Amino acid sequence: MCPAKKTGDVRPGWLIAIGGAENKLKNPEILERFHQLCGGNNARIMVIPTASELEDAGDQYVQLFERMGGKAHATPLNDREDCYSEDVRASMEKTSGIFITGGNQLRLSTIIGGTPVAHGIRRLNATGTPVAGTSAGAAVISEHMIAGGRSRSTPREHGATMAPGLGLTNKVIIDQHFRQRNRIGRLLTALSYNPFASGLGIDENTAVFIDPEGVLEVVGSGAVTVVDPAELSHSSMHDAHHMDPITLIGLKVHILAAGARYDVNTRLATPPQANNGR
Amino acid sequence: MCPAKKTGDVRPGWLIAIGGAENKLKNPEILERFHQLCGGNNARIMVIPTASELEDAGDQYVQLFERMGGKAHATPLNDREDCYSEDVRASMEKTSGIFITGGNQLRLSTIIGGTPVAHGIRRLNATGTPVAGTSAGAAVISEHMIAGGRSRSTPREHGATMAPGLGLTNKVIIDQHFRQRNRIGRLLTALSYNPFASGLGIDENTAVFIDPEGVLEVVGSGAVTVVDPAELSHSSMHDAHHMDPITLIGLKVHILAAGARYDVNTRLATPPQANNGR
């Protein structure tokens, strides 16, 4: 799905992609910053725990956000029928932020995809509501989602499987638990299929906060590996055999720690200290 | 140590850096190709098992190379005194190739460094003798060697420790078991200290064969990640605190599978198919 059409002067909402395992009790800076974007003490956050099969996956976040101020509620969507409920539709009307938990991103896309909930999230984000996801919830944000693939591998033919995501951005492809699960091969494989997007490999307890203009800032204790394939001069993907390692020549890579920025439109990275005057 | 001075028309020997765990019985293409460079049936290969503390580390390679043809012998160098032996000096005179096994690269540099064996290897390679190393033996080939550091980490201040290597090339810094041990953070850390060299991250059962002109070709079943920091526009290494993740903007990265080439002098990568006419 392409990002929802933007109309007139309406600014889209922030997108927050978290690499998983974000701090929840000690120094939860990522969750706090999202909570502030949702209105702080006036926040009304909808938590979507669909990616997880754990009963209490949503409740933990509800408690965390309510402790920070405002209201939060978990909306269990366990099958497609749930996504057509009038109650869910009504509660989406009143939400000031959406938070999508971790788990399996294919549960998210297969249960929510094409339903009023997916449409609602897209419409809310297009008109200013922040949407955050952690781990699987981060993967599903983009139009082209990494559904699975080999960790710990060099880039290979068939090294990543793709699926359509929620389509809140088509500028990036996201991978998570990035350094911890050694996923650079999988991200490069995904990018090589059609090198039009930037790749974001997000470490655990690390997030990108993408503002309405498409400039992301890194928050958290790890780093984000940005892969820009715009100047890729050769890829052997099209004539590789099954599971062959592939050759990719001319990738640009930035390693961005907290405070560093990247513009997903211009593809320019800026270091933390250059932002002081901002 | 800088590479030995080249005199007149004498061509230096090949350098072969292997990422470890190379095939030894089934399809040992890397070892066979090195063996051919050493003269095939006329080969006289010296195996240096110093990196390993296992008694038979050298014998395994001796048997493999002798099965391929010619002669091979292991030269155990277990302390610095061994490196001053007249027998060792005499057998170096007759060698057509040096093979350095895996283990701990600091054993290699601390036992061999500065001795007649180190001088001998440098002189032999400068005058045409191929030198190969696997794993720790690959790391020690370069002037600036990664001695240790964190695997599985994002690039961090203090994320890699460096030591002087044998200095057979100063154009590259080598890391090995690359994808298998998730070492891109460690290699980027090492490069960021002084981004003058290209970084080579070599997967297991994968090697770079660097010809006398400095053009390397990838051989084996994995890939080599080449990091060219020539256009690095920002590094936060100089003002990072202990173990902080660092920001690096503007790295160029190539993923090279079998048959792809990279010129360590011009820093140009070429895909496998472009070599057909060569």
Describe this structure in words.
The structure is a homodimer of 278-residue chains. By secondary structure, chain A is α/β, with parallel strands linked by helices. Chain A has a single domain (15-264), classed as 3-Layer(aba) Sandwich (Rossmann fold). The first copy, chain A, is 22% helix and 27% strand. In chain A, the strands form 3 sheets. A 9-stranded mixed β-sheet of chain A has the order 3-2-4-5-1-10-11-15-16. In chain A, strands 8-9-12-14-13 form a 5-stranded mixed β-sheet. The model of chain A has no long low-confidence stretch (mean pLDDT 93). Chain A binds chain B through residues 152-155, 179-180, 182, 184-185, 188, 203, 221-223, 225, 227, 234, 236, 244-260, 269-273, and chain B through 152-155, 179-180, 182, 184-185, 188, 203, 221-223, 225, 227, 234, 236, 244-260, 269-273.
Topology, element by element:
2 copies of one chain form a homodimer.
Chain A: E1 15-18, H1 29-37, E2 44-48, H2 57-68, E3 71-74, H3 86-93, E4 97-100, H4 105-112, H5 116-126, E5 131-134, H6 136-139, E6 144-149, E7 160-164, E8 172-176, H7 184-193, E9 198-202, E10 206-210, E11 215-220, E12 223-228, E13 234-235, E14 248-257, E15 261-263, E16 269-270
Parallel strand pairs in A: 1-5, 2-3, 2-4, 4-5, 8-9
Antiparallel strand pairs in A: 1-10, 6-7, 9-12, 10-11, 11-15, 12-14, 13-14, 15-16
Write a brief structural summary.
Chain A has 278 residues and is α/β, with parallel strands linked by helices.
Q: For the largest beta sheet of chain A, what order do the strands appear in spatially?
A: 3-2-4-5-1-10-11-15-16
Query: Can you write the helix and strand succession of chain A as a string?
Result: EHEHEHEHHEHEEEHEEEEEEEE
Q: What is the overall pLDDT average of chain A?
A: 93
Return the domain count of chain A.
Answer: 1
